[in-house]
């Protein structure tokens, strides 16, 4: 049973990103509406190894990383009903859970304040179906955008998003001025914005 | 509310990555509570974070971790949608959580100069920066407040003007540390701003940078 589950997900990883995301959305729906454990385990199989890799970065040993993976995946189970397909991909949503957990658990002494973005959004005029359609387009575009970002900008993004380093820490690590770190981040975001065709 | 002045894109990315200091993070989160445009920008930046995580090499997860997670599902409860906060509340949610009173008028303001009062927002002891509320009387100039560090300002009420234009309620001034400005509060009412100041974390000269690990700054 477990082997079958894993094979399905592995096969999908060879397919188009859009198909994979559609599968995740479907699994999330089953988790939220039916409390479907098999659907959850498929999500675990795909995301847990990436989450562990993500959690291993900042000063975390394998044991702590697995504790955080467990905590993140339990949050996915608990909050599945809060996931809104029109607001972003499942991958992005799970990234924000992992990021928040890392802020909370690893940097507990000086946490970064966060807002639950969805709490503040006005109801959209677009029918939810349109939002989801637009979002499906976006999933592959973000991947395309990241692929087109020059290496020196990509490096800054990795140090920031994955290694959890502040801009000033990145400047020290790379021995470049803080202003250069910021300008590379601006360029990377500008590239993403052009590809996603979003407003400034 | 649709603010006219927004967060720098490098700040948007740092927020999405979760790497801002508590001080700047508080002002950023407060602006986000009021600004649909910057919320959309954060979502795009978070999508980038999701893609970066997706592309990480897999780290093998132990059978024990999988088993423990699956075993915990039965005891877990499904969260329901929370009631959305009031988007146009007088004090943005992230700030309100750190204030002893709901109404800004009732804060124990400290007078610093004629027409200028300050309230220090209490952060965690390990926060690198500080956050202050500034209340500036009509027509008064905003006093100098720390140079050479990162600084982000959010206007909570009233308005001020400087060479970059008019900054009113909801607007954010997210300026590079070398930009100098002399804001003056508009006539007609107090201007209340939320200001985060993060001390510089590295020196500019090469010699000083070499000393940095020794002096622990
Ligand atoms: Zn904004």
The largest sheet of chain A is: none
Please give the radius of gyration of chain B in angstroms. 21 Å
Q: How many helices of chain B does DSSP assign?
A: 6
Question: Can you list the ligands bound to this structure?
Answer: zinc ion
Number of structural units classed as domains of chain B: 1
Distance between the termini of chain B: 40 Å
How many discrete domains of chain A?
2
Name the helicity range of chain A.
over 70%
**Which two chains touch over the largest interface?**
A-B, 88 and 79 residues
Question: What is the strand tally of chain A?
Answer: 0
Strand content of chain B: 15-25%
Whole-number mean pLDDT of chain B: 84
Q: What is the strand and helix layout of this fold?
A:
The complex is a heterodimer of chains A (200) and B (217).
Chain A: H1 2-13, H2 17-34, H3 37-55, H4 62-79, H5 90-105, H6 117-120, H7 128-147, H8 151-162, H9 167-174, H10 178-196
Helix pairs in contact in A: 1-3, 2-3, 2-7, 3-4, 3-5, 4-5, 7-10, 8-10, 9-10
Chain B: H1 9-17, H2 22-34, H3 36-54, H4 63-72, H5 93-96, E1 110-113, E2 116-121, E3 129-136, E4 150-157, E5 159-162, E6 165-168, E7 172-175, E8 184-185, E9 191-198, H6 206-215
Antiparallel strand pairs in B: 1-2, 2-3, 3-9, 4-7, 4-9, 5-6, 5-8
Structural features, described:
The complex is a heterodimer of chains A (200) and B (217). With 200 residues, chain A is mainly alpha-helical. Chain A has 2 domains: 13-125, Rna Polymerase Sigma Factor, Chain: A (Orthogonal Bundle); 148-200, Arc Repressor Mutant, subunit A, CATH 1.10.10.10. Chain A is 73% helix and 0% strand. Chain A has 10 helices and no strands. In chain A, helix 2 (17-34) crosses helix 7 and helix 3 runs antiparallel to helix 4 (62-79). Mean pLDDT of chain A is 83; it is low at 1-15. By secondary structure, chain B is an alpha+beta fold. Chain B has one domain (1-217): Jelly Rolls. Helices cover 30% and strands 22% of the residues of chain B. Chain B contains 6 helices and 9 strands; from the N terminus they run αααααβββββββββα. Chain B has helices at residues 9-17, 22-34, 36-54, 63-72, 93-96, 206-215, and strands at 110-113, 116-121, 129-136, 150-157, 159-162, 165-168, 172-175, 184-185, 191-198. A 6-stranded antiparallel β-sheet of chain B has the order 1-2-3-9-4-7, with helices on one face. In chain B, strands 6-5-8 form a 3-stranded antiparallel β-sheet, with no helix packed on it. In chain B, helix 1 crosses helix 3 (36-54) and helix 2 (22-34) crosses helix 3. The longest helix of chain B has 19 residues, at 36-54. Chain B is elongated, with a radius of gyration of 21 Å. Residues 201-217 of chain B have low confidence and may be disordered. The chains are: A mainly alpha (200), B alpha+beta (217). Zinc ion binds next to helix 3 of chain B.
